[in-house]
C-alpha cells in the first residue's frame, strides 16, 4: 500500500509497458523457482521473504495488527501482537509458495498433504442434484483444497476472481489455477449467469466471502463492527436452491486441513433483499467461527471496516510526522507508530 503523497509520477507509455511486462516476468519466475527448489529450501526462503515484507510494509502490518486485535481482543499487545503479525505474514507468504508449486504435484502428493472434516456436507449437497456453494474466508491455503477436490474425489470446481492488471498477468494466473483443476470466471456482469449454470451442472462454486470488492455488498455485523460483505453467496443460494457451506482451509503443520460446516438455512422468508441480508449475516457468524480458530492465518491486510480507513489515515499522518522529525531510530519509530493505534473501535 502506497501513501498517495509519495506516489510516483505517471509513467510514460514505454516505461509503463516495461513495468507491466516486468510484473508478469516476476510472478512467472517466482512460480518457476518455487517448483524447482527442494521443499525445505523453498519453505526457508518463504519465511525469509515474509520477514522482509513485515519490515518493509508498515501499512499492511498496521492493518494486520488491527485485524488480529479485532478477532483476539484488545488484550493482544506488545511482543505477543508483533509475533502474531509476523506469523500472519509468514502464513500469507506460504499461501503463495504452496499455490505456485501445487500444480506440479502428483495426485499422491496432493492427497497426502490434505485432511478434511465435514466433507460429507459437500457430498450430501451434490446428491441433491445442485452443487453447493463453498463460502470461504481469505484464510490458510484454500487453493490446495480446491486442487484436492478436483483431482481426488473428482468434483469440478469453479471460483470467481477479480480481474488483475495487466491482462497478461491475469491470464497467466487463470491458467495456473486451471492447472490445479480450478476453473475461473472473472468478476463482472456475466459471472452470476455462469455460476448459476455451473451449480446446476454439478460444478462446486467456491467464493471468498469475507471482503467486499467493488460496489454493492450487504451490510452486516462482522467481528463487532458493521461493514459490507459480498451478497453473492446468499443471492446464488436463494435463486438456485444450492446449499451454502461455510468452509475454511487451514495450514496444518506442513499440510492442509479443510473444515466444512453444516449448511446455512436459506429458506425464503420474505422479500429477496431481506433474505439476502439475513443469510449473509448468518454466513458472517460462521466465518467468525472459522477465522477465530486460526486468526494468524487470516490473510486480510487491507481495510475491511469503516473504522480501518480513518485509523489508516491517522497512521499515515503520524508516519509523515516522524519523517519530518528525522527520527531514524527504527525501534523508537515502530513503538511510536503503534502507540495509541492498537485499539480497535467497536
Describe the structure.
The protein has 346 residues and is α/β, with parallel strands linked by helices. The chain folds into 2 domains: 140 residues, no CATH class; 184 residues, no CATH class. The chain is built from 13 helices and 9 strands. The strands form 2 sheets. The chain has a 7-stranded mixed sheet, sandwiched between helices. β3, α8 and β4 form a beta-alpha-beta unit.
Chain-averaged pLDDT? 86
| Poorly predicted tracts of residues | 1-20, 339-346
Radius of gyration over alpha carbons? 21 Å
Helix/strand order, N-terminal first: HHHHHEHEHEHEHEEEHEEHHH
Number of helices: 13
Beta-strand residue percentage? 5-15%
Multimer state: single chain
Instruction: State the secondary-structure class.
Output: alpha/beta
Topology:
Elements (H helix, E strand, L loop, with lengths): L12 H24 L2 H18 L1 H15 L5 H24 L5 H6 L1 E4 L2 H8 L5 E4 L5 H10 L5 E5 L5 H14 L1 E5 L4 H10 L3 E5 L9 E5 L2 E5 L2 H9 L3 E9 L2 E6 L11 H21 L13 H20 L4 H9 L8
Parallel strand pairs: 1-9, 2-5, 2-8, 3-4, 3-5
Antiparallel strand pairs: 6-7, 8-9
Helix pairs in contact: 1-4, 2-4, 3-4, 3-12, 9-10, 10-11
Q: Which features would summarize this protein structure in a list?
A:
disordered C terminus, 13 helices, 346 residues, seven-stranded mixed sheet, single chain, disordered N terminus, 14% strand, alpha/beta
Task: Provide a brief overview of the structure.
About 55% of the residues lie in helices and about 15% in strands.
Amino acid at each position: 500500500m502506497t501513501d498517495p503523497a509519495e506516489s510516483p509520477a505517471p509513467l510514460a507509455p514505454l516505461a509503463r509497458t516495461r513495468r507491466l511486462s516486468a510484473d508478469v516476468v516476476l510472478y512467472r519466475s517466482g512460480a518457476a523457482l518455487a517448483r524447482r527448489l527442494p521443499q525445505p529450501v523453498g519453505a526457508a526462503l518463504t519465511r525469509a521473504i515474509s520477514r522482509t515484507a513485515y519490515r518493509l510494509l508498515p501499512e499492511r502490518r498496521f492493518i494486520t495488527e488491527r485485524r488480529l486485535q479485532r478477532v483476539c481482543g484488545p488484550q493482544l499487545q506488545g511482543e505477543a501482537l508483533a509475533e502474531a503479525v509476523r506469523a500472519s505474514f509468514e502464513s500469507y507468504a506460504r499461501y503463495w509458495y504452496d499455490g505456485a508449486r501445487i500444480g506440479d504435484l502428483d495426485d499422491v502428493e496432493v492427497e497426502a498433504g490434505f485432511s478434511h472434516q465435514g466433507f460429507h456436507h459437500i457430498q450430501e449437497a451434490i446428491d441433491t442434484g445442485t452443487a453447493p456453494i463453498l463460502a470461504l474466508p481469505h484464510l490458510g491455503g484454500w487453493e490446495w483444497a480446491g486442487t484436492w477436490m478436483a483431482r481426488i474425489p473428482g468434483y469440478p470446481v469453479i471460483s470467481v476472481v477479480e480481474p488483475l492488471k495487466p491482462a497478461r498477468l491475469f491470464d497467466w494466473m487463470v491458467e495456473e489455477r486451471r492447472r490445479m483443476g480450478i476453473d475461473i470466471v472473472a468478476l463482472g456482469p456475466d459471472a452470476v449467469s455462469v455460476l448459476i449454470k455451473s451449480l446446476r451442472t454439478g460444478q462446486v462454486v467456491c467464493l471468498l466471502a469475507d471482503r467486499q470488492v467493488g460496489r454493492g455488498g450487504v451490510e452486516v455485523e462482522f467481528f463487532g463492527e458493521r461493514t459490507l460483505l459480498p451478497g453473492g453467496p446468499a443471492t446464488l443460494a436463494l435463486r438456485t436452491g444450492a446449499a451454502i457451506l461455510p468452509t475454511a482451509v487451514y495450514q496444518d503443520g506442513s499440510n492442509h486441513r479443510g473444515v466444512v460446516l453444516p449448511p446455512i438455512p436459506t429458506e425464503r422468508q420474505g422479500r429477496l433483499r431481506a433474505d439476502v441480508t439475513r443469510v449473509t449475516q448468518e454466513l458472517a457468524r460462521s466465518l467468525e467461527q472459522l477465522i477465530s480458530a486460526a486468526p494468524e492465518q487470516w490473510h486480510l491486510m487491507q481495510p475491511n471496516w469503516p473504522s480501518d480507513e480513518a485509523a489508516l489515515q491517522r497512521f499515515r499522518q503520524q508516519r509523515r510526522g516522524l519523517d519530518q522529525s528525522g527520527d531514524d531510530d527504527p525501534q523508537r519509530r515502530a513503538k511510536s507508530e503503534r502507540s495509541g493505534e492498537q485499539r480497535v473501535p467497536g
